[in-house]
Amino acid sequence: MLDMKFVRENPDAIDAAMANRQSSWDREKFFELDDERRAVIGEVEELQATRNAESKKIGALMKEGKKDEAEAAKEAVREVNEKIEGLAERRTKLEADLYDFMAHLPNIPCEATPVGVDETENIERRRWGTPRDFEAEGFEFKAHWDLGTDLDILDFDRGNKLSGSRFTVLGGAGARLERALINFFIDTHTARGFKEWWPPIVVKRQTMFGTGQLPKFEDDAYHVSGDNFLIPTAEVVLTNLHAGEVLDADTLPRRYTAFTPCFREEAGSAGRDTRGIIRQHEFDKVEMVKFAKPEESDAELESMTHEAEYLLQQLGLPYRVISLCTGDLGFSARQTYDIEVWLPSYNAYKEISSCSNCGDFQARRANIKYRDPENFKGTRFLHTLNGSGLPAGRTMAAILENYQNADGSITVPEVLRPYMGCDKIERA
Fold first, then answer.
1. How is residue 371 annotated by DSSP?
2. What is the rounded distance in angstroms from the CA atom of residue 360 to the CA atom of residue 364?
3. How does pLDDT run across 128-177, given as a tens digit for each residue?
4. Within a 13 Å sphere around the CA of 383, how many CA atoms are in the beta-carbon half?
5. Which of 16, 260, 296, 344 could form a disulfide with 234 if both were Cys (CB 3.0 to 4.6 A apart)?
6. Domain locations in the chain?
7. Does CATH number 3.40.50.1370 belong to domain 119-425?
8. Element (H, E) at 173
9. Cα-atom radius of gyration of the chain, to the nearest Å?
């Protein structure tokens, strides 16, 4: 959530930020709500001063025996109290409306985010690895959905039978590969300084609100009993671990990681990536989350991106890193790097990780602050960051396609062999 004072004092900057995001905001409505709220507050303060003055009169008038005048003063106080109560109700309504208004405003892109209309204007930063030339190797590659079916490790028909479209059953070596990837990701992150958590996957509305999934993306969320939700990513729970808390500066940055199943309705993705396991309603993912001082968050974003890259390098999967432009930026992010892995079936790089610096945007929504008495009095909002490290399904798809052999088998990447107990996946 944006700082209301900043919005009030810098409306032109908000105009520019929303335009760069290919979005808009109702400037007139904001000031209408804010001006009325401030006017109500001012009126209440004046009435309170009047009430205090009249209240002081009552005691003095009673001592002087002026009962009629004292009663009149009491009546004046009662009338003022009624006005204050009425204004309090109006203030509550205005503040709720203003809070809802602010809750729908996306984050402001930082200066490092390139200005652009949509994904076609994202900027490539670097590449790693070289895609295989299957033609030069003398065989025609297969897509992961065909490889998985042929090897009997991906079962799309039974997934559909059990749960509907975009659900998949993993069997045999497919199930083992899923576990291997999750354990490899977690083991790598924890060895490199991240604290592992095992959080719940059912969360309250406020928890989803804290990271910016609600209210804007409610249609993409899975609702469960009551007013609860299945998480779309471990970012939601890891970030909200410290909701309503004040952290000590000397404990920052904090680096967290967790494996969770993730659930997304994908309401806005009809017709996109319908084949295979690229875009599923349920998938497994390992997430990274950081809590940092504002002056350190940019460096922590670079570090987080390199952590995701390190996983892909260890797996030997070709990838590229791009900077998302303002028109392609996520709701809560001020800056994002996407990492895209090479998929032969698409003849293109496809997103496998997204690493974002959210600034104090989520911290304001979830009320996460830090204290640093050596540098300032009181408390301030810290910065939060999140990144995929990595989704197991998309990584599996990349491994199947990039490590396939002419006979239909899959060579297991060396780093996964201790987890898999084999160096090749073949049809049983």
1. E
2. 6
3. 999 999 999 999 999 999 999 999 999 999 999 999 999 999 999 999 99
4. 20
5. 260
6. 26-103, 119-425
7. no
8. helix 173-191
9. 28
Instruction: Give the residue numbers marked as catalytic.
Output: 264, 279, 351, 354, 394
Q: Provide CB contacts within 8 A for 96, sequence distance 6+.
A: none
Distance, CA of 305 to CA of 303 (rounded, Å): 5
Amino acid at 95: E
| Six token digits for residue 320 | 């590229």
From the list 391, 420, 150, 194, the residue with the least C-alpha distance to 307 is 194
Task: State how beta strands 246-248 and 369-371 pair.
Answer: parallel
Q: Report pLDDT digits (tens) over 368-402.
A: 999 999 999 999 999 999 999 999 999 999 999 99
Helix axes 392-402, 173-191, angle to 10 degrees: 110
Beta strands at 246-248 and 169-170: parallel, antiparallel or unpaired: unpaired
Q: Cα–chain-centroid distance for residue 83?
A: 43
Dihedral angle, C-alpha 394, 396, 399, 404, nearest 10 °? -120
Dump pLDDT digits (tens) for 50-87.
877 767 667 666 666 677 677 677 777 777 788 888 89
